[in-house]
Write a structure and sequence with these properties.
Chain lengths: 433, 433
């Protein structure tokens, strides 16, 4: 039993709630079977003798949750960024995703992606694969080995896509999805879980959404998709779904938009209407706010601060490769930055995101989609990222909150020296320090 | 003579003009006494036998020019970013700058700054120090040793600043400036040059600006300052200078705004009026566009694309510590990103900056403030940055322009493996590669 108990020593930073960060300097976090037993100034008597992993003077934050990214697009991140969403899909995303029909290519590309994700500050993620079942299984196998907790979706798309990247019709798409769910259940993964992934309304026929809804109810799967990202896309959805009251209503019509038995995460929500916002709140839909992607694809700036302050579920996503950076620390900084520009240029009544708010989004905000995760409070699953800021020297000593703020803006992968998921160390780079 | 001639081999990327990037794959760039002799597919017969520094398959770009940054603020970059300009100056910038009254602190802090600048993609920079003459000389001594080409300014400020960071009056400020110019001339620097640095209109009395104009004319110094950054600041300048037609006119009134004998660089120009823009164009004033700072301090987004396309001089600046990143590659990416948001949110008639345009700004655009620099064409001073992108693996081979685009978005300091200024290697990190 004691084998599964250990303590992490260091300076802990985590969210109490969306307005307050807690700092515990050089304290002990007890991990019992992957679950936090809380933080203590001194090692309690009942835990004397357990292993202490000593990161004195390092900062330790909860593992960050990336609520939205496209694994196959990692190969072209940071390139071809001069187009808007629909042109970018046709020019960059679709041709690249088509390559994953080849398992060799998928293996090579996903190997690079999963290794980098493992070394990033992310511990959990909602991931789009491609429509290819084999390639999706390759990705899931590789992710399982990283120790990261992920939800991965074989993508569904049966209309309005190039012939080289489209399923023949609704039933073949649904059949492939059932085959994929079968394959997943045969693998008995510990870390990697399927999530239903209709690409977005323009790519999915009504017939397909009906079949996916049946699959969702049969297997109790969560759902991920895109929502109200770009004006051109929204206009297109209106044409495609003349009977829908708004974009989100087109998902809701097929029972793929939250409610009790369908945990749902929707990426973007840059232009959600009042009705859409109200429905997301009512039905507990998660919003994956992707500030870098919304900038790179000239989509705009989502009112993420409003969503958070009005009590909607909102987390952050890198949206690789609409976003080019895999770092969720950068996503925090980006979210704050664009919220300032939105305040200045769009709506001075919506104050910019504060650091505690953006940090909350990246931890508990998105983490609750995975259960009790994103915090160090007692009872939470213990995901942790150990940050070494010695590459950022200062002529004077800095308080922990200032050090955290600096790392959010300035860190690169070299600052991440160890990572825990459910109490397991999945990555350590502490040898030469 | 041959000792001063060598060739760089690699894949060169540089601007032909503001609309076109030139790529020369695995070619030879000849450097003769610090000046480019042009790029050749093969080593010309007349250069056979010269040293070839072989960076085959690496990307080589011109050294980047940072037109605006505050060296003393490097210590707190990435922190305290929740305020607008004027509050931020009082809360973060001024208290920190006051510490440079202590030479020991200045030495420690500037040592960190200059070492990081040396390892960044920057080869030339226009730098604000503080009002302290001694600390400014410490900074200049350290910069001289890096081999970087810099213009450094002792800051002038004699009003509207806290007593702990203000010169007594105009004459003491001017006298300290003359004393500083004397000290600089005694050092016989090869790389480091003085630039007159009235902080901004709110900090400088009319009397001071008259004295600085006399000094400018006597010593033929260039000038750097701030212009039209933030609505609150601009409103204040209107109150302080009721007779000025616009902010820039307040500098021009004292002959500190371009024209033939007063090379001038003004940071920001987020809210320049038509009259101000026309005067900057007419008098050849350089604009240092600082996209990250303008975002962090909620200032807004400057119409940099307009300035460039209308033929004004415009370069990029990191504006440490309004900006938190010292990387001019990131400044290129930031400039493109904010120009997209400006297109979407402010003015759909002004198309976003293209990659060639932003790259041009960071090289020739700002480089011409230093003379013939920022390009590899024959006759240019040879500043070069060698980039190794092997830390960004790809499952397929990528063309050089795509590799450059990726590095602009994704590079960190580990991707910079060698740097040349005027043909001298000032930094090399190629041992273990």
């Amino acid at each position: 039993m004691l084998n599964n108990i250990f303590a992490l020593k260091g300076t802990f930073c985590y969210s109490k709630d969306s307005q307050n960060l807690i700092i515990r300097e050089n304290a002990y976090l007890i991990c019992n079977n992957g679950i936090s037993e809380g933080i203590y100034e001194e090692l309690p008597a009942c835990f004397q003798g357990i292993q202490v992993i000593d990161h004195t003077n390092k900062l330790i934050i909860p593992g960050l949750i990336d609520l939205h990214l496209h694994a196959p697009q990692y190969t072209f991140r940071g390139t071809g960024m001069d187009l808007e969403l629909l042109d970018w899909l046709n020019t960059s995303a679709f041709p690249e995703e088509a390559r994953y029909a080849e398992s060799d290519y998928a293996q090579k590309a996903y190997q690079i992606f999963t290794e980098d994700l493992k070394q990033s500050p992310t511990t959990r993620a909602c991931i789009f694969a491609t429509l290819h079942t084999d390639a999706t299984m390759i990705l899931m196998d590789l992710l399982e080995d990283t120790g990261l907790k992920t939800m991965v979706g074989k993508v569904n798309m049966d209309r309005n896509a190039p012939s080289y990247l489209m399923e023949q019709n609704a039933s073949t798409s649904a059949a492939a999805t059932r085959q994929w769910i079968d394959a997943v259940s045969g693998r008995h993964y510990q870390n990697t879980f399927p999530i239903l992934t209709p690409r977005f309304i323009p790519s999915c026929s009504d017939e397909l959404l009906i079949l996916l809804s049946e699959i969702q109810q049969e297997f109790h799967l969560p759902v991920q998709s895109h929502l109200s990202e770009n004006p051109g896309e929204i206009h297109w959805v209106k044409e495609l779904c003349p009977d829908s009251l708004f974009y989100g209503d087109a998902y809701d019509h097929f029972n793929l938009f939250g409610r009790d038995h369908c945990p749902t995460v929707m990426a973007h929500c840059v232009y959600s209407t009042e009705e859409e916002i109200a429905l997301m709140k009512k039905q507990g839909v998660y919003i994956a706010h992707c500030p870098q992607s919304n900038t790179n694809l000239s989509s705009g700036i989502a009112p993420a601060a409003r969503y958070l302050r009005e009590g909607l579920h909102v987390g952050l996503g890198t949206d690789i490769a609409g976003g080019f950076s895999l770092s969720m620390l950068r996503a925090i900084a980006d979210a704050i930055q664009v919220s300032k520009l939105r305040w200045r240029l769009v709506d001075p009544s919506l104050k910019a995101l504060t650091l505690p708010e953006a940090f909350y989004m990246a931890t508990i905000g998105g983490g609750s989609f995975f259960g009790k995760t994103g915090s160090f409070e007692k009872g939470y699953e213990l995901d942790a990222v150990v940050l070494d800021d010695s590459s950022l020297p200062s002529p004077r000593s800095l308080p922990p909150l200032t050090r955290l703020e600096r790392l959010i803006s300035l860190s690169d992968s070299s600052n991440i020296i160890q990572k825990f998921v459910c109490g397991n160390s999945i990555f350590s780079n502490t040898e030469d320090r």
